[in-house]
Amino acid sequence: MSDATADSQNTSASSEVVYGVDVIGNLIFIPTERARELREFYRIWSTVTTWGELMERLQEAGLTDELELFEDCEEHLIADKPITDEDKSAYFDMELLPWAGEEMLDWMPNDVLEMGSDSGSPGGTYGLYLRPEQEAEVVAALEANGYTCTRDDELILAAGLT
Predict the structure, then answer these.
(1) What is d(CA 17, CA 15) in angstroms, rounded to the nearest whole number?
(2) Can you state the angle between helices 51-60 and 32-47, rounded to 10 degrees?
(3) Cross-strand pairs, 151
């Protein structure tokens, strides 16, 4: 399949995109449906108290990709084992939690990828880094590639680890 065909299929599958600025000042773009999934994941992650509850709620929410993040973790085998703040910090520190900045590398058109950097955070987290002042340029490029862009800072913040 040609790159143009692949880009066309990706665009038609998720052409509605939301964007905004995340908690560390990056301009983030996410297919709208994925933003809703990430918002639900982080809502669950921030409220569960045991590994069993986490696995159950992820399954109920249909968040299979996120469920797979924890299936290899021995803790989830003990359903009533508490999830501690240390556990949550460890997942964050090891960069195991989903992040839209990293996911942008998978679906963004090449012309947009070239506008950003793939290593711009203080911790060196791998992802696409776009500056807020690039908003108009990035939106125009995405729209030229067939995407519909809507600014929604609230959803962007809810779809990330805050």
Answers:
(1) 6
(2) 150
(3) 19
C-alpha 118/C-alpha 60 separation (Å) is 34
Task: Tell me whether residue 4 is in a domain.
Answer: no
pLDDT tens sequence for the chain (162 residues): 334 434 444 444 469 999 999 888 889 999 999 999 999 999 999 999 999 999 999 999 999 888 888 877 776 667 788 988 888 877 776 567 888 888 899 999 999 999 988 765 445 557 888 999 999 999 999 999 999 999 999 999 999 855
Annotate 81-149 with DSSP letters as a single string.
PBPPHHHHHHHHHTT-S--HHHHHHHHS-HHHHTTSEEE-STT--EEEE--GGGHHHHHHHHHHTT-EE
Q: Is residue 5 one of the residues assigned to a domain?
A: no
DSSP state of 50: B
Tokens 């052409």 correspond to 15
Which distant-in-sequence residues (6+ apart) come within 8 Å of 96 by Cβ? 69
Residue 60 C-alpha from the chain's centroid: 20
Q: State the total domains in the chain.
A: 1
